[in-house]
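Following up on my earlier thread - several people asked me to post the actual chain instead of describing it. Fair enough. Here it is, all 483 residues.
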Amino acid sequence: MSSADIGLIGLAVMGQNLVMNMNDHGFKVIAHNRTTSKVDDFLNGAANDTNIEGAYSIAELCQKLKSPRKVMLMVKAGDVVDIFIEKLIPHLAEGDIIIDGGNSYYPDTNRRVKMLAEKGIHFVGAGVSGGEEGARFGPSIMPGGSAAAWPHVKPIFQAIAAKTDRNEPCCDWVGNDGSGHFVKMVHNGIEYGDMQLITEAYHFMKDVLQLSNDDMHEVFADWNNTELDSYLIEITRDILGFKDDNGEAVIDVILDTAGQKGTGKWTAINALDFGIPLTLISQSVFVRTLSALKQQRVEANQLFAPSIEPITEDKTAWIAALREALLAAKIISYAQGFMLMREASENFGWDLNYGNVALMWRGGCIIRSAFLGNIYDAFQADPDCAFLGSDQYFKNILDNCLPSLRKIAAKSMTSGLPMPCTCTALSFLDGYTTARLPANLLQAQRDYFGAHTYERIDKPRGQFFHTNWTGTGGDTTSTTYDA
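Reply from S.P.:
Thanks for posting it. Predicted structure:
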């Protein structure tokens, strides 16, 4: 009998938890996995004594779904998604819906929306954030794709999504094509930057202020009661206070090499393609690649080991400055992310609602934080806000915290302690707020060696000039390409 509300393919941790979440909210779910033994394991384990049913083939899955059929894929991004789409197509009818809840690259979602539309099938690319706990009890969900699918998936997604303090679901329609996966990609990029900024604050406290793990645990606990209140600050507090069975801090035995799955890299690549100075997030990706060069770093340390002079006095004042520096840098990270989304929205005609994006990130997701509510307010006041720092709330914070950001960045430089993302945040803000940069010299250099032309301050924008700098270069100019 075709009675189920939705089917889900892919019973790894995220998939299982989403199925359980849907079941908790009264939806009839059919679960399937390519390795069918996992279906039995799930039904006899976590899903025991629930209304969840299993399916041992794609055909059986689709037969059990009521129309329009809704099938959600929670599988590895890439070719695996396409393989399952091809397997599903023969068993679906016009108006049915396929949902990709993985971390797919948005151009793939663009392609899939178009391909399936030609067959009368709707496709939704839904970014899902919050990890296994979020999936189980309320993730942030960022759906985009075929708008005709939204009324059918909305009741399910908004029911299982995290809720704000005002009971607003952290899920809303993002826009057409791959917009949902693009927003999730930027979310992950901001996550990269946020995590790196926190680790730099930890590094400063550990090596410059020489605080113990217990001391730092208390600092992060205090910070979580300020504007820095967020999931990542919260878990950092917990990590620094966690000890193994022998009473030893686990953080001290973890190798200092960080992994990545590619979403941060995608964010940085798109920033370059769109010509957006996503300096902080891009730097955070490079820091992870630098961390992977462990043996080379150990060897180079023997040649260039910095001698870090610890701070022994006024530690309380330095901790206060560090908190303000972290807050300012964090705002810059989010501001750059919204700049990239704005550029993509204008390029693709997505008409993104940036306030709604902030609302979707307010709960459930990894970068959820208290000031996302303030970001929502900023875009409610000015939907066309180009730079988050121009909103009065955030401008006041940056004005107040900028001296601390300079203080921490300067100390890191003079002490030899690497804080690349913290320093990048300061450099970006200084550059973005400088009315006249030395790019005039850079453009003169380009014109000198390559006849790339330049604009003049005493002429209208869009008029280009070339100087025969050597007297032998001639008047022929080169074509100019804009990033």
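The chain is about 50% helix and 5% strand. That should answer part of your original question.
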